[in-house]
Specification:
Residues 18-113 form the HTH arsR-type domain. The protein is mainly alpha-helical. It has six helices and three strands; from the N terminus they run ααβααββαα. The chain has a three-stranded antiparallel β-sheet with strand order 1-3-2. Helix 3 (52-59) packs across helix 4 (63-75). The longest helix has 31 residues, at 2-32. It is globular.
Length: 133
């Protein structure tokens, strides 16, 4: 019986590896949403198309910071851009689904009392420590 379990171990490990690989896009999606500035940008874009200058004014951030976050969101397929004169207008690429995902996250945070922000690995203190390095 032990021999059979040993023979099945590689198959189980391969299955776990393929499951992990299958979840990689979901992990990438959540990682793209893991920055508070990117979340704030998405909230503003939910109201409609925005220029970088509009977002910098509303968020009180440098143009380079907003542009870098928009580039990340665009590279992840979450926002679109289109030229308008010398500027670009940014919009959500999957607005209703993305907003539903964020609403579900807010609901989960309401149920858990935002305890995830105390997580020593991913919470506010961990992010602040990572920013100082």
């Amino acid at each position: 019986m032990a021999m059979k379990a040993q023979r099945n171990a590689p198959a189980a490990m391969a299955s776990a590896g393929s499951e992990t690989a299958a979840l990689s896009p979901a992990a990438s999606l959540f990682h793209s949403l893991s920055d508070p500035t990117r979340l704030a940008i998405l909230r503003h874009l939910a109201a409609g198309e925005q220029r970088v200058v509009d977002l910098t004014t509303r968020l009180g951030l440098a143009q380079s910071t907003v542009s870098a976050h928009l580039a990340c969101l665009r590279d992840c397929g979450l926002v679109n851009s289109r030229p308008q004169g010398r500027a670009s207008l940014f919009s959500l690429s999957a607005g209703p689904r993305l907003m539903a995902l964020l609403a579900a996250a807010e609901g989960l945070l309401a149920e858990t009392g935002d305890i995830v922000d105390l997580c020593p690995t991913h919470g506010a203190a961990a992010r602040a420590a990572a920013d100082t390095c």
